[in-house]
């Protein structure tokens, strides 16, 4: 059985209220750079920045989401197989939250048009997210 983290990337998700203001702070005050910013309707919802050699995702939570704190993300290529490997090692996943009416749920994984997510807590109660990006259309 391979390690869960093999071939993955660690990312920190930071909830923000105002995307433009947050991007200014992380680029001007911390010297980060924008790697990608959402397009169209996603422009003010999501951005990826490189800060100090690490990726951070700035996200404006929707009203129904309970994201009040920053949390780390384990970026994987296949959410379903990563969840299976992690469950085999004793990780317990939370019930998924639907982000929209179009969200599909399969076990602990919520699938949306832009990716798949599954939430779990570490041994200390810290919230973590497993995430699989879907290719841009």
Ends apart, CA distance between termini: 34 Å
Looking at CATH, the homologous superfamily is 2,3-Dihydroxybiphenyl 1,2-Dioxygenase, domain 1
What would you call the shape?
globular
Helix residue percentage: 10-25%
Strand order of the largest sheet: 2-3-4-1-5-9-8-7-6
Could you state the order of secondary-structure elements as H and E?
EHEEEEHEEEE
Give the domain tally: 1
Topology overview:
Elements: E1 9-15, H1 19-29, E2 33-37, E3 46-51, E4 54-59, E5 71-75, H2 79-88, E6 104-106, E7 109-112, E8 115-121, E9 127-133
Parallel strand pairs: 1-4, 5-9
Antiparallel strand pairs: 1-5, 2-3, 3-4, 6-7, 7-8, 8-9
Describe this structure in a few short sentences.
The protein is α+β, with helices and mostly antiparallel strands and 137 residues long. The protein contains 2 helices and 9 strands; from the N terminus they run E-H-E-E-E-E-H-E-E-E-E. The longest helix has 11 residues, at 19-29.
Could you characterize the architecture of this molecule?
The protein has 137 residues and is of the alpha+beta class. The protein has one domain: 2,3-Dihydroxybiphenyl 1,2-Dioxygenase, domain 1, CATH 3.10.180. It contains 2 helices and 9 strands, in the order βαββββαββββ. Strand 3 (46-51) and strand 4 form a beta hairpin. The longest helix is centred in the N-terminal third of the chain and has 11 residues, at 19-29. It is globular and about 45 Å long. The N and C termini lie far apart (34 Å).
């Amino acid at each position: 059985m391979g390690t869960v983290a093999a071939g993955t990337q660690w990312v920190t998700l930071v909830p923000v209220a105002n995307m433009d203001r947050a991007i200014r702070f992380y680029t001007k005050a911390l010297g980060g750079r924008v790697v990608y910013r959402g397009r169209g309707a996603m422009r003010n919802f999501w951005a990826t920045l490189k800060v100090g050699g690490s990726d951070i995702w700035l996200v404006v939570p929707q009203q129904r989401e309970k994201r009040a704190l920053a949390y780390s993300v384990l970026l994987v290529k296949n959410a379903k197989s990563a969840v299976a490997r992690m469950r085999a090692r004793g990780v317990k996943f939370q019930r998924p939250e639907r982000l929209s009416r179009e969200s599909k749920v399969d076990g602990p994984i919520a699938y949306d048009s832009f990716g798949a997510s599954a939430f779990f807590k570490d041994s200390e109660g810290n919230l973590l997210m497993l995430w699989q990006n879907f290719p841009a259309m």
